[in-house]
Amino acid sequence: MTLSRFRWWHIDEVLPMEADLFGPEQWSAAMFWNELAAGHFYLVALDDAGAVAGYAGLAVQPPAEAWVQNIAVRRDAQRAGVGRALLEALLAEAARRDVRSTLLEVAVDNAPAQKLYARYGFEPVGIRRGYYQPSNTDALVMQRQTGAMPHD
Q1: Over 50: is that where the pLDDT of 152 sits?
Q2: CA 108 to mean position of chain CA atoms
Q3: Which positions, given as ranges, span the membrane (predicted)?
Q4: So what's the architecture of 2-145 in CATH?
C-alpha cells in the first residue's frame, strides 16, 4: 500500500466506495471537488494494483485547529492497517502545521472507528444530535490534543 495525494481523478473511483460504506449519507462528487478546491489535505491509499483502497481528509483551521473530514476504507481492504495509516498521515500533517487540537465526528454506533481514534489519543467531548442525515444518527465529537500518543 502507498499513500499519495488525493487528486480530482480519484473522485470517480471513491464514489462507489462512498455509496457502499455510507449509503444515503454518502458524499457527492461536488463535495469532494469542494474539499480539493478549498485546499484541504486529502490522501488516498493505493493497493498493490494501484486501486484506491481508502481515502482521508483533513481541514486545517488556522491558527491551531484541524478537523478530520473523513476516513474511509474499501470493505475488502478493512482490518489491514489502511485506516490506521491514513489517520497517522493526517495527524503527521496536523503536527507539521503546528495544530494543537484535532477534532472529528464519528457515528455513535461506529465502535470500531471510535476504538481506533481512542488509540490515537482522541477523547469524547460532545454529541451532535441528528448529525448524519437522512438517518438522523448522532455523531460523537472526539478531540485529540497535540502530543497525545497512540496506545493499545
Answers
A1: no
A2: 15
A3: none
A4: 3-Layer(aba) Sandwich (3.40)
